[in-house]
Amino acid sequence: MQRIKQLFLTLSLVTLCLLSGVSSATSLSNYLENKLIDTFLRGQAYTMPTTVYVALATTSGSDAACGTEVTGGSYARVAVTSSMANWAGTQGAGTTVASSGTGGTTSNNNVITFPSPTANWGQVVEFCVFDASTSGNLLFREALTTNKTINNGDAAPSFAAGALTLQIDN
């Protein structure tokens, strides 16, 4: 199946125990590709998630599945409500109005912070975005440009506002 959309994800390195991001292109998950085709071309209803959940993984995944997600040590996916307040419009970082730009890019308007680790989480190599706080459907995933080992007692890992940039290839 040809990909109907591609995402370009970029994360910047921020201070403390911050995760650094990606510079390569990635595809939407197989699940989301199928939903887009069914919704836009086949007239099938799709209920958009009101919240998405950012996850961390210690192994690389694929379009079909996230890698091995971190477990234990106070780890939990981070909920980000789907809203114009939380995700920038395509006009640029920090915008909170409906998209009218031409670049097909959005980014997080607020810091995305994971819980402080109370055990070793291991070396994080990618992040994934799901439609549920546990299990759920993978929406997309991408490798970090710099792997980050997260240990017990480290500062809470986070992505700064504007650091998680998503661009749909147009």
Automatic annotation (TrEMBL):
It comes from the Bacteria. InterPro entries: Gp80-like. Residues 1-25 form the signal peptide. Keywords: Signal. This is Uncharacterized protein. The lineage of its organism: Bacteria, Pseudomonadati, Pseudomonadota, Betaproteobacteria, Nitrosomonadales.
